[in-house]
Amino acid sequence: MAEIVDEHDFKKVAPTSDDELLAQIGHVQELERNYSIWSLGSLCLCLMATWEALSSVIATALTTGGAPCLFFNLLISIICTIAIACSLGEIASIYPTAGGQYHWVAALSPASSRATAAWITGWINVGGQIVLTASAAFAAGLQLQALIILNDESYLPARWQGLLFYWAVLLYAAAINIWGAKMLPTANLLSGALHIAGFLAILITLGAMAPKNSPSFVFTKVSNTSGWSNDGIAWLVGLLSSVYPLLGYDAACHLAEELPHASRNVPIAMIGSVTVNGILGVGYCIMLLFSTGGLDVLLSTPTGFPFMQIFLDATKSRAGATVMSLIITITAVAATVAGITSTSRTTWAFARDKAIPFDRYFAHVDQRLHIPVRMVILVTVPQMFLGFIYLGNSTAFNAILSMAILGMYTSYLIPIVYFIVYGRPKLAQHEFGYFKMPKALGLGLNLVSCAWLMLVIVFATFPTFMPVTAQNMNYSIVVMGGWLVLGGIYYMVRGRKKFEVPVVDREAYNFE
Asked: What sections of the protein cross the membrane (predicted)?
């Protein structure tokens, strides 16, 4: 599928070490390279948490198209996500820096638009990562509240209580990122083990104990109860359930400055985590759909999470359902920790290039802990404010998911488009990194990626239910639009005057 460029040839024109590469693009090594390919791969696995996230978001697809909507959308989404990961991995292999997408755009875009294109990409990526991390914390917090509902029928849940659970998860994740930073690589390995072991345990339990639906229910029986009159549009709105569980693999590139041999290892972590999680996701999806029982009961479960009802129906035990559900909730907490790690590094790199207000203050790296403590705190604060959306909107969780998709997918789309137009046609063989796809295959995967990304971006803005009310409106486009307007105002007034465009062009790599 892809070829590995001969290391001897690469070193003729490229820096010979990670630190030298970083120095040649204008930065010094400030973060410790504590991550191995295994710990970074585990971080990506747990940040994506595909089968666990699928459990949390199946309601949308079951509402808009039933079991076939979830299964076939997931299958297509995995194939297209592998194409995206390959496309981004090839670029990351050339430019392995913590800035990721905005660094790549800076390297690939024409000089006349370089600063603006890089800054916009970075701003979108930062916003997307903030919301993606918030979505994992939302899932964990609301699931903790749901576990109380599962075990205590007299409990009357309130949204403000869900908000407190959400905040508790965020504060825990921030604290681990600050005071437990040295342990994060090991913690990620343990979380990766739980991710695999939990999958096997739940799969075996459902296989042995749950009543089974017919194959026609899983693969052919379409059920649209969303209110959308057009089944095709409803089906595409259901993409949210299959796209969201496959977000976050770009975390590998944002930790490129904390990983040895980043040009080789970052693409491996990205593509490998998508492939492994995709396989686990399909297997889990099939078992879950065969074990659902009646959709009416699932979609009206008092917990708000159909997977908890599936576990309860299968085990006939609140304790058993609680233990199974906790595996998913703990992984969501681990995903929040990983998300804050990735988001803080991206935003720190952005501040290092003087792209945000008070950049000098927030680009600081604690000399004792060797992490950007101030940036960890900074990215946690807006995530906490996002929780207030939940107080006034009954579909706030879906809106958060949609915002994550909008931000992340847009930040994936922009560098791939630039690579198609300005990178692939112009780069010589020796200018690629360790991971290089054959030209025809690479271009084909780039085009598939762009088509899929644009399709999903459009339908991520659609409301899940019809008719639309103030309570169930999808406010993702409003929030993301506000984020862009706010950033645009800052960039025009102040940012464009001080933003230092990353020096990630051919000259930085000694390319003649």
From this structure: 37-58, 70-95, 163-181, 193-212, 232-256, 268-290, 326-350, 371-391, 397-421, 441-462, 474-493
Half-sphere exposure of 208 (CA within 13 A, CB side): 7
Average pLDDT of 483-502?
91
pLDDT number for residue 68: 95
Q: In this structure, what token pair is assigned to residue 235?
A: 């089906």
Between CA 60 and CA 76 the distance in angstroms is 17
Q: What is the pLDDT of residue 210?
A: 92
Listed ranges 135-139, 351-355, 376-380; the one with the highest mean pLDDT: 376-380
Residues 346 and 350: their CA atoms lie apart, in Å, by: 6
**Tokens representing residue 59 in the block:** 């309601």
Alpha helices by DSSP H, listed for 224-261, are: 231-237, 240-243, 251-254
Let me know the angle formed at the C-alpha of 202 by 200 and 203, rounded to the nearest 5 degrees.
Answer: 60
Q: What one-character DSSP code corresponds to residue 464? A: S
CA 450/CA 350 separation, integer angstroms: 25
Whose tokens are 């491996």? That residue is: 268
Local structure of 434: helix, strand or coil:
coil
Please, are residues 400 and 135 in contact by the beta-carbon 8 Å criterion? yes
Q: What is the pLDDT of residues 193-228, one digit of tens each?
A: 999 999 999 999 999 999 999 999 999 999 898 899
Task: Report the b/e string of 365-397 with b at 16+ CB within 10 A.
Answer: beeeeebbbbbbebbbeebbebbebbeebebbb
pLDDT in tens, 263-278: 888 999 999 999 999 9
Q: Which long-range contacts (CB under 8 A, 24 or more apart) does 360-367 make?
A: 365/30, 365/31
Phi and psi at residue 3, to the nearest 5°: -115, 150
Give the 3-state DSSP-derived string for 365-424, with helices as H, strands as E and coil as C: CCCCCCCCHHHHHHHHHHHHHHCHHHHHCCCHHHHHHHHHHHHHHHHHHHHHHHHHHHHC
Task: Using alpha carbons, select from 348, 509, 434 the residue that is nearest to residue 21.
Answer: 509
In order of their start, the domains of the chain are: 30-497 (1.20.1740.10)
State CA 390 to chain mean position distance. 21
Q: Shortest CA distance to 62 belongs to which of 291, 382, 378?
A: 291
CB 366 within 8 A of CB 275: no
What is the CB neighbour count within 10 angstroms for residue 259?
24
Question: What secondary structure letter does DSSP report for 49?
Answer: -
Contact of 507 with 107, CB cutoff 8 Å: no
Cα distance between residue 311 and residue 316, in whole Å:
8
Tell if the pTM clears 0.85, that is, is over it: yes
